[in-house]
Amino acid sequence: MTHPFTIAIDGPAGAGKGTLARRLADHYRLNLLDTGLTYRAVAYALIQHALPLDNVSAAETAARQVDLAKLDRAVLSAHAVGEAASKVAVFPTVRRILVEKQRDFARTPPGAVLDGRDIGTVVCPDADIKLYVTASAEVRARRRLAEIESIGGTADFAEILADIQRRDERDMGRADSPLKPAADAHLLDTSEMAIEAAFLAAMSVIDDVLAKRNKA
Ligand code: C5P
């Protein structure tokens, strides 16, 4: 791999893109950035200071302070933080600040796998590989319920489904950088595909591109 290689992965919450991104970053020895954590960090800072999520200037300040090396998944992964993140993610100025940091990360050798909502469309439109990972809302809700139950929790399927649908609407409906597949993205529907199969499908796309690149 000569210049920094970029794999962009987009898709809705719960489609399996995080797991896929991790597997691909391991396999191809690339850096990994879950860009959702950057929006979560902004939301978390506002929550910590008891500030409303529509305080744009506080959100901008929090965005400037985001340090990609210090994103704490354990703290940021709470469900409520994800919901709050999708509210601060509608502000174009907040997005611009975070996108700059994400692009710097992508430019660092040997390259990176970035996953989010706008990687192939906005953050890295020239990415070597673009994947759009999706699954039906019902399947994503069922997976989330299984995840909660596997750690001894309980939840209501209908509530989880409504939650997922609300988040999809917010992410796909916003004016700035809405969630959508890039025109040149490879679609991976994981509704009826195990993550291992999605990984193999992604690998075959990536290996094709790498083979052509090495021949050029
Ligand atoms: O992927 P995750 O659930 O951690 O993302 C939380 C929220 O952050 C998303 O619902 C979305 O609104 C926002 N986000 C975004 N652009 C990205 C990544 C996440 O707007 N690249």
Helix/strand layout:
Blueprint lengths: L4 E6 L6 H12 L2 E4 L1 H13 L7 H10 L7 H4 L2 H10 L3 H16 L3 E6 L2 H5 L5 E6 L2 H14 L6 H17 L12 E4 L5 H21 L1
Parallel strand pairs: 1-3, 1-4, 2-3, 4-5
Write a compact overview of the structure shown.
With 216 residues, the chain is an alpha/beta fold. The protein has ten helices and five strands, in the order βαβαααααβαβααβα.
Report on this structure:
This protein is of the alpha/beta class. The protein has one domain (5-207): Rossmann fold (3-Layer(aba) Sandwich). 56% of the residues lie in helices and 12% in strands. It contains 10 helices and 5 strands. Strands 2-3-1-4-5 form a 5-stranded parallel sheet, sandwiched between helices. The longest helix has 21 residues, at 195-215. The two termini are 12 Å apart. The structure holds cytidine-5'-monophosphate. Residues 13, 35-36, 39-40, 82, 85-86, 89, 116-118, 167, 171 line the site of cytidine-5'-monophosphate (C5P). The site of cytidine-5'-monophosphate has 14 residues, from helix 2, helix 5 and helix 9.
What keywords describe this structure?
single chain; 216 residues; alpha/beta; Rossmann fold; five-stranded parallel sheet; binds cytidine-5'-monophosphate
Under CATH, the topology can be stated as Rossmann fold
Number of domains: 1
The mean pLDDT is 95
The CATH class, by name, is Alpha Beta
CATH architecture: 3-Layer(aba) Sandwich
Tell me the series of helices and strands, N- to C-terminal.
EHEHHHHHEHEHHEH
Class derived from helix and strand content:
alpha/beta
Biggest sheet architecture: 5 strands, parallel
Shape: globular
Classified in CATH, the superfamily is: P-loop containing nucleotide triphosphate hydrolases
Kindly provide the radius of gyration, computed on alpha-carbon positions and rounded to a whole number of angstroms.
17 Å
Lateral strand order in the biggest sheet = 2-3-1-4-5
Total beta strands? 5
How many angstroms does the end-to-end distance come to? Answer: 12 Å
